[in-house]
Amino acid sequence: MNKVELEGIYTAYEGGARPVIRGLSLTVRAGEYVIVGGPNGAGKTTLLESINGLAKVTHGSVRVCGIDARKAGHEVRKRVGYVLQSFYFDPFTPFTVEQVVMMGRYGRMGFFRRPQKPDHEVVDRAIGLLGLEDLRKRPIGTLSGGQQQKAMIAQNIAKEPDIMLLDEPFSNLDFSTREFVTRVLEGLAAKGMPILMVSHAFDDLPDRKIRIAIMNDGKITYDDTCDSCEVEAIVRKTSRMN
Amino acid sequence: MLEFLIPNNIVCHAVEAMLFASISCGILGVVIARMNISSIGFTMSHSAFAGAAAGIFLGLNPLLTGILFSVLVATLLGPVSDRTRMSVDTTLGVMFAMSMAVAIFFISYMQYLGRGFSASGLLFGDVMSLYREEIYALAVLSIVTVAFIALFYKEILALMFNVKLAEASGIRTKVVFYGILFIIAVSVALNIDIVGGLLIYVWLVTPAAIAYQFCYSMRNMFIVAPAIAAVISAFGVWAGFEYTLPVGPLIAVLFTVAFALAVILSPKRRITSNKS
Ligand SMILES: Nc1ncnc2c1ncn2[C@@H]1O[C@H](COP(=O)(O)OP(=O)(O)OP(=O)(O)O)[C@@H](O)[C@H]1O
Ligand SMILES: [Mg+2]
After folding, report:
1. Which value does ipTM take for this structure?
2. What digits encode the pLDDT tens for the residues A105-119?
3. Domain range holding B168?
4. Does A112 touch chain B (CB under 8 A)?
5. Would an 8 Å CB–CB cutoff place A74 in contact with chain B?
């Protein structure tokens, strides 16, 4: 089943001279592990945000889990995990790691529902998975950059989404955490959750078929599936400015 | 309601009003502080003022036009800040100036026509002269406010944490955000009729600021801020009567003293420096 169907989409930012994404089509099926590559400014982040409806798609159709993301963006976002490329929480933010991880589930819970026992269990598991037990009561802003990134990944795992979008989730992570998160994502993909990950790190890809989608200047210029050991060479060859 | 505790009717009404208004303002203050929209107090009180001035000019009930005008401004607040892509505080500033202009226009024009009046006396209430109906109105308003915060608690939390992440989680952030702005705005506009401007400004900002010195979590802030607001306000009414001092200013001073103490005593300034 197709989880993501983009057809000839154009995505523009306010005040931009021209659309950032121009006539892009992409189909992602259940269980696919997609690495999105391409030079800075190619539109990778914009692509992810076109999928979950955060960016303004002006033309074309976006269907995610069968839902029209241009019409019901929040319905899509309830089902799609999204680890942002950059974030900053000031040290005085009065929210603990535990609360922030739980917030991943707030949208899908819907109005008027409080977190119940199953919600807490899922959150506990996600926190355990990322090794954040000792930090769970700490204000999020007092964590290091890498610890915050782990918290954001935990938040999206706790969300139990149908699709996972990750924007350079490894940028602040140490070697062993990258390996571990990769294994977790691989496990999710094996259960059918498509993973779309923007990444420039190729030393820790799961040992399985990887689909590579390379973006250049708002379009996908290369899209093929290969073994994980071939990824780096392909990305080098196909990213124009790299 | 509290007659069994406080025999003096005026004091009793004042304390009741204080408790209702201070508790709801204290809770809203936590949201206001976190969202950096503390000028919502001045803006909304002056929209009510502008509406009242227009009402008098048009020969309508100034209380009603005051409330109508504030509701109009409250409704515009969210969509306008969205549309302009500027902070809500900037929109509040624009609305404040506009409200002042409307008020001054009508007042000046009526003075020119020889119909001078004191709109501020009409509009800005006084805790020392309250009717029973006004207390009931305050009670209802407080309950509605608290119920709103309770019903949308998790959405409000997420919004106070980070708007983009709240949006990404699938929350309908606009609905919730407009709702919060609306409820704060209406609450201020109605409260101002009854208890007056000074106390509203104090309640909306200072209890949350005091609570922030001691609390590490939002939940504690939501409990501590209204508790502080209620205790200091009730004490202020009592002290004002006991020593025949003006109650509003006295309470404002008490809050400021409490804030100063809180800053000095705050455990948040502590640094653990033992080397073990
Ligand atoms: N909010 C915005 N307003 C206007 N233009 C934007 C905005 N965000 C991004 N852009 C532009 O859109 C283009 C694509 O940006 P995008 O963030 O999608 O790139 P990217 O591929 O994720 O780059 P990077 O590798 O640096 O993260 C860039 O040219 C950028 O300048
Ligand atoms: Mg990017």
Report:
1. 0.93
2. 999 999 999 999 999
3. 9-271
4. yes
5. yes
Please list the ranges in chain B whose pLDDT falls under 50.
none
Task: Find the length of chain A.
Answer: 242
Residue among A46, A165, A216 whose CB has most ligand 1 atoms within 8 A, to mutate = A46
- For chain A (242 residues), the mean pLDDT of every run of 10, in chain order, is 94 93 96 94 97 96 96 96 92 92 96 94 96 95 94 97 96 90 93 95 85 94 90 80 48
- Closest to A168 (Cα-Cα) out of A45, A69, A47: A45
Judging contacts by C-beta atoms under 8 Å, the chain A residues touching residue B152 are 111
What separation in Å is there between the alpha carbon of A166 and the centre of ligand 2?
10
CB contact under 8 A, A87 and B162: yes
> Does residue B4 form part of some domain?
no
Amino acid identity, residue A195? Answer: I
Distances (CA, A) of B234 to B12, B19, B231, B237: 10, 7, 5, 5
CB B200 within 8 A of CB B25: yes
Which domains occur in chain A, in start order? 4-241 (3.40.50.300)
* Chain A touched by B221 (CB under 8 Å): yes
User: Looking at residue A35, what is its pLDDT?
Assistant: 95
C-alpha distances (whole Å) from A68 to each of A5, A50, A65, A81, B84 are 10, 11, 9, 17, 27
CATH at residue B230: 1.10.3470.10
Backbone angles phi, psi at A62, to 5 degrees: -125, 110
